[in-house]
Each structure stands twice: as structure tokens, then as C-alpha cells.
Amino acid sequence: MSNIAASLLKVARESPDGVALICKSGSGWQRWTFRQLENNVACFAEFLRGEGVVPGDRVMLMVRPSMEFICLTFALFALGAVVILIDPGMGYRNLLSCIGSVKPAVLVGIPRAQLFARLFRAPFKTVRRTICVGTGFGLLGKELPCPGKSTRQLALTPTQADDLAAIIFTTGSTGPPKGVRYEHRIFQAQLQQIREYYQIGAGDVDQPAFPLFALFSIALGARAVIPDMDPTRPAQVDPQKFIQSIDEFKVTYSFGSPAIWNVISRFCQERELRLGSLRKVLMAGAPVSGELIERMHAVLPVDAEIHIPYGATESLPIVSICGREVLTETWGLTRQGRGACVGRPLPGIEVRVIALREGAIGPFDPAEGSDLPGGVRWLPPFEVGEIIVRGPVVTAAYDNNDAENQMAKIIDGDGFWHRVGDLGYVDDVGRLWFCGRKAHRVTTANGTLYTICCEAIFNNHPQVLRSALVGVGGAGRMRPVVIVEPQGRVEDAPKLFAELREMALQHEQTAGIVDFLIHKSFPVDIRHNAKIFREKLASWAERRL
């Protein structure tokens, strides 16, 4: 049997009285031990089973980060049900489309979610049972009971490694969000990578800005502190509250997007604060600048580590690099337009770069240096192409989406490769460099421009907070436009544009860029608040030019 909920049972046996979870409750904080969490999970599983939830049922979980979220997720895993997780901030249209595509049988959600389901009935038409997490006054489905105080042991439904455990949706930063199928084996493989590569385990205290990562911490025997913040708006985190819980609970590691750490690091520097308990910081979701790494190292203990994992919802983590290597070896090259170095493949992960190709790629059994079907070929070091990956953390399919599966997967014997959707290259020491999303490349009459490479050049200007390269016009004849989000108010836009043009002329890849625009606040994804929605900016630029 392979059930990811078994990891909770294991740590509850090994450390029953250890504090597993800390959450904000009213004006204070509430704590639960591993034994108490197991009891809560067992109570919820028993209740859900009594309400007719059976193995294989698709259960839409719409609950805020909390003890209930953690324990309901483990309870559903234990039952052999399929947990459906969707970011609520992706917008009504995307949210409703995602819900309709996965056809949930059960809705477990807070009162607001239950009202939402009644307002938009069509996507929820497959729901046969609703469970209200909170007070529904008997109108919003049967209410989830408070866990009993008596100690109960959790019983696991026998599941296999390839049985579906969850469907987790992508952010939709380059198209409609897609539901990614997570089997129990994927969660097990991710746990192993986090435990062995990042050395996370019992004795650690985690403060994850992304709620799902609290599940990993608890499964590894670490303590999870749910921060007092809105996880759908990480860039708007209250730094004082985030830092206060780090200090109060002696948090040793924390995962968050660059948007969060930008806020936290600036707040600490302005007030000369240090995050004395943190030993590891993980940043992911978008390229991480050297300036951010430097600011974070300045407020962390001298021996603290910054890790920057690379991957996607479909495959995470697959590559990683530490902050000190970025500062000493790669950041200077990034600023010159060479792309962002994301590091070396993790153990058991194979990453390759193939020649850029549109459309699906048929099955192959590649040999080093040989041509692949349809003219596809492996690329040598330093040649930009499409990144593909295979390994134990790489998911096999999207849910109910054969068209995307054909586009994203390449059959290779008994296994498969996943097309990440990113462009990049491998250097002469085996490190992967990220050059931008495949969908965001700008194809001009004079060649192809890559977003991350070109933007890094303009980001060197002191008035530029960040920039975005977009293309206006049809493929192969796009007009490259650089949009800048400024650091504060721009008093003299023509002067700024002239200086950016001068910077462009100093590099071959940007020499043909002559159009610049100012946008006060870039649209970004809801999960990390860091991935730029370049498609929206391209439409905006087309209207302005």
C-alpha cells in the first residue's frame, strides 16, 4: 500500500507529543500535537465516510489555511478520495471553468464557498454531497463536526502508488489553468526530495507562505506555522506579522515567492532587523534577482542557506541552486543577458534541451547525439532550446485534457518526458539556464528574442523595478516592445527611454529594440504574485502604440 497519509501516522507514532501545527486563532495562536492531528484526521475521515465519501470520489476542498484544511486534506488522502485544489484568486471565469472540468462529487468548503456553488450551479452540477466547514445554519450542507477529544487511530484505505491522490491546478500564467494529476507516488517522491536534498525533517519549524507546503512539513515530522496572511496575495503580506511569528516560534525554514521575500527583506533592512532563527529560505515561482539574494543574506544568520528550486506544478522540484552560487558565479552573466541560472538537476532527475518545436512530438527512444523523430534533436551546451524533464516527481498527465497531454508529454520507451514550456540551455558544467517561457518569446524578422535575457539588461537601470519584453504583431514579424514598471514616479519619460535605448544598443540581442512604454503596476499571477502576465501587457502595448 502507498498512501501519502501514512507519513502522518509514522510521525504521530514517533513523536506523539511534539507540536505539529500552529495556527492563528482569534487574537492568539493555537497548537496541535502530532497525536492530536492524527485524532482530528481520524474524526474527519470517519465523518466523511459516514457522509458517503468513498475511494476515488473527487472532493473539491475550498477551505482557508487552517487546522481544518490540513486535517481534511490528510483525511481525504486516507480515505482514498481525490483532493481538488484550485487557487480562488484566479478569477471567476477561470475558477468556474476549472471546477466544471474536474467534475467534483463532493464539495467541502466554508460558507462563502457553499454560497458561491449555489450562485453558479452549472460547474457544480456533479456534486452530490456538500459539507460546510463553519456555521451554515442548516442551509449550506451538513456541518463538519469539531473533532472529539478522545484519541482515535487513523485507518488508511489501501491505495497503490499510481492511484490518484489530488488534482492541483496551474496558475494559468501562459493560458487557461490546467488540472495536474498527482498520484500518491508523486507526493512520496516530493517528500523524499525535500527530506534528502534540502535536509528538512524532525526538529525543523516551517512557515510556508503557500499552504500546501505545510502538509509536506508535517509529513516530514517538522512543525508547521501557518502565517497570518492571505496566501493569494503574497506581495501584500504584512511584514511585521510575518516576522513576528518567525521570531516567536523560532522558525528554521520558510518557503515563499520572491514577492514575499522582497517585502520582508526591505522591511528588515529599513528597521535593522535580523531573522535570527531562519537557517533555510526557499524562493520559487519566478526568477530571483541577485539584489534580493544579497538583501536576504544581510538579514539572515551568516551560515543560513538560500535555495532557489526550479520546476512547475507538473514537475517540482527538478533543479535547484543556492544563493551564494548565484552571487559568486552566475548573477553577473544574468545581468549581461545570458538568462537566469536555475542550477543542476536534483538526484534522480534528468533534464535535457531539445531544438524548439511547435506541435506534439511523437514517441522516441533517443541515443546521445542522434536525431529524434520529426527533426527534433538534442542541443549542445549553450544553445537555447526547449527544456524537457523526466524523473519521479514529474506528473504523467493533465486531467480530462487529452489535447494538452499530447502537447506536453513525449513517450520514451516505458517512460515519458515532460515539456516544461520553458526555453533555456545547459552550460559546460551541467547547469540549466532559464531564458523565458516558450509562449513569451518574441519572433521578429531579424530573429528570436527571449524575455528573461533581454529584460535583465534593462533591469540594470536604477529607475526600473522590473521590465517585460512583449511582441506586437504576428509571429515572425513581431515588433519588440519593452514595458517598464518604474521605481517610483518617472519625472522625465523621454529621458528614461533614451537611456534604455542606449543600454539596448550595447547588446546585440537588444540592439533592435526601439519601443519603450511605462506601466505603473504589472499584472501578475495570483499564486506567487511574481510571474508577469505578458499576454495582458502585449495587448495593452498594442493599444498604446
- Mind describing the biggest β-sheet? 10 strands, mixed
Question: Quick one: CATH class of the largest domain?
Answer: Alpha Beta
* CATH third-level topology of the largest domain: Rossmann fold
Overall body shape: globular
**CA distance, first residue to last residue:** 60 Å
Poorly predicted parts: none
Description:
There is one protein chain. The chain is α/β, with parallel strands linked by helices and 545 residues long. Helix content is 30%, strand content 25%. It has three domains: 6-226, 3-Layer(aba) Sandwich (Rossmann fold); 304-436, Luciferase, Domain 3 (Luciferase, domain 3), CATH 2.30.38.10; 441-544, 2-Layer Sandwich (GMP Synthetase, Chain A, domain 3), CATH 3.30.300. Helix 8 (239-248) crosses helix 9. The protein is globular and about 70 Å long. The N and C termini lie far apart (60 Å). The model has no long low-confidence stretch (mean pLDDT 93).
What is shown here, in short?
The chain has about 550 residues and is of the alpha/beta class. About 30% of the residues lie in helices and about 25% in strands.
Keywords:
GMP Synthetase, Chain A, domain 3; 26 strands; Luciferase, domain 3; alpha/beta; 10-stranded mixed sheet; 545 residues; Rossmann fold; 15 helices; globular
